[in-house]
Design goal:
about 500 residues; alpha/beta; Rossmann fold; Helicase, Ruva Protein, domain 3; Zinc Finger, Delta Prime, domain 3; 3 domains; five-stranded parallel beta sheet; 23 helices
């Protein structure tokens, strides 16, 4: 069996990398296929659980961590593990890696779910770890699944025991540790990033599952190459999902063979594979890392005037189940932040987009979102308005509550007029071209320019207009000075 699987994988590598010889491929991938002897698991256990690798050499994927000479191989050679945080998407191997590391170091392994357990259980684990260390000189590895679900106070319960070395913590999280993990705990752990598995990795795992007696080997199934490729792609980097797919496909294939009274081994063909998958789902968490990654990609595609990238990321979010009104709100913000007065119509377009979706809902209203995205991507860009908000806020924070110049104040009472309120104010409509030369900022900020329009789109006209106005006012001021100086 090991030989069959190795040959299959080597053929796949050779086909994908024509410049690599089969001998080189064998050197690079042999470590994936060392199957240790183990008891046959119950067929009632889900396939994904039965097919967990039994040792590190059997682990598929994450070569940047488990390959020869890589981090986990190196630290295992030293015989002592540091506390680790595995950050990666579902089905990337976080739990399997933690179990393998504990087995490789002969440590006591405690599986701890942040969903089901609390601080009380931590105390019991600490007591057991102290007993094992004192009586058997044995280390304890505490694996905390979904550690990001613990609040900051609960995470603090691990700190003294990780600090003292009583517990080696291995946490698994799908959330960015920078935001989800308490900084003191984060500083005591090495963060290892796990990536979604490539289709080639998943094909290897599925082929193994179909042929190995731990998995579906006793069914003597045959899986077609196109079905294997389809399941690997549909899994979207999630190995657990892929194994669930192939388990369902195997049941369909066996049932189909019984109905036809086939005497030959059942086969998982493309029809079975598609039936098992039903509708492909995408990796997404409306409150997690992927949410922020995708909205960032959409925003930057719009800013970079790429309508193709914009509609792709928009589609990814919609299909994954993101709230369309959230996307509409972000595009409204974009219209002011990155387009501004280069195309003032952009803001109205996005407001209409939100109203259209609110009126129509999905799927009809989604067309308005696509239309708005294309408009924003192809509109001229300017962040002049966005930039001036920072300048204004900085000056206000720096100078405080500066008084309004007297000539800009209203004077509805006699006392206010006597105090000089409104004195010297020039009414623009009484002047030529409705232009007046008077100070509108507090004295300490006189001459400050906040709005610096770009030379793109409609803002180029605004820029030209402001330049002409300033030139006119400068000429009037010069003429006024000349008259004043020439007066007897």
């Amino acid at each position: 069996m090991r030989k069959k699987i190795l040959e299959y994988h080597l053929d796949h590598v050779a086909a994908s990398n024509p410049g690599q010889s089969k001998s080189n491929a064998e050197t690079a991938f042999t470590y994936l296929f060392v199957f240790p002897p183990m008891q046959q698991p119950s067929p009632h256990i889900p396939l994904a659980e039965r097919m967990r690798p039994a040792e590190l050499d059997e682990f598929v994927g994450q070569e940047h961590l488990v390959g020869e000479g890589r981090f986990l191989r190196q630290i295992l050679g030293g015989g002592k593990l540091p506390s680790l945080l595995f950050w990666g998407p579902p089905g990337s191997g976080k739990t399997s890696l933690a179990t393998l590391l504990a087995r490789a170091t002969a440590s006591h392994f405690v599986f701890f779910s942040a969903v089901l357990s609390g601080v009380k259980e931590i105390r019991q684990i600490v007591e057991q770890a102290q007993s094992l260390r004192d009586t058997e000189q044995r280390a304890t590895i505490l694996f905390v699944d979904e550690i990001h679900r613990f609040n900051k106070g609960q995470q603090d319960a691990f700190l003294p025991h990780v600090e003292s070395g009583l517990l080696t913590l291995i946490g698994a999280t799908t959330e960015n540790p920078s935001f989800a993990i308490n900084p003191p705990l984060l500083s005591r752990c090495q963060v290892l990033v796990l990536h979604p598995l490539e289709p080639g990795h998943i094909k290897t795992v599925l082929y193994r599952a179909v042929n190995d007696t731990r998995g579906l080997g006793n069914l003597h199934l045959h899986i077609h190459e196109d079905a294997l490729a389809y399941l690997a792609e549909a899994a979207d980097g999630d190995c657990r999902r892929a194994l669930n797919f192939v388990e369902s496909a195997a049941s369909l294939a066996v049932d189909s063979g019984k109905q036809r009274h086939d005497t030959v081994a059942a086969a998982i063909d493309l029809t079975c594979a598609r039936e098992a998958v039903q509708e492909r789902t995408l990796r997404y968490d409306a409150d997690g890392e992927e949410h922020y990654n995708l909205i960032s990609a959409l925003h930057k595609s719009l800013r970079d005037s790429d309508p193709d990238g914009a509609v792709y990321w928009l589609g990814r979010m919609l299909i994954a189940g993101e709230d369309p009104l959230y996307i509409a709100r972000r595009m409204i913000r974009f219209a002011s932040e990155d387009i501004g007065n280069a195309d003032p119509q952009a803001l109205q377009i996005t407001l209409n987009c939100r109203e259209a979706y609110h009126l129509l809902g999905s799927p009809e209203g989604e067309l308005a979102l696509y239309q708005a995205a294309v408009y924003l991507a192809t509109a001229p860009k300017s962040n002049a308005v966005y930039a001036l908000t920072y300048k204004v806020r900085d000056d206000i924070r720096r100078t405080g509550s500066l008084p309004v110049p007297l000539h800009l104040r209203n004077a509805p009472t006699k006392l206010m007029k006597e105090l000089g309120y409104g004195k010297g104010y020039q009414y623009a409509h009484d002047e030529h071209d409705a232009l007046v030369s008077q100070q509108h900022l507090p004295e300490q900020l006189a001459g400050t320019i906040y709005y610096e329009p770009s030379n793109r789109g409609y803002e180029a006209l605004v820029r030209e207009r402001l330049y002409k106005w300033r030139q006119i006012l400068k000429q009037r001021a010069a003429q006024h000075d000349n008259k004043k100086n020439s007066a007897p």
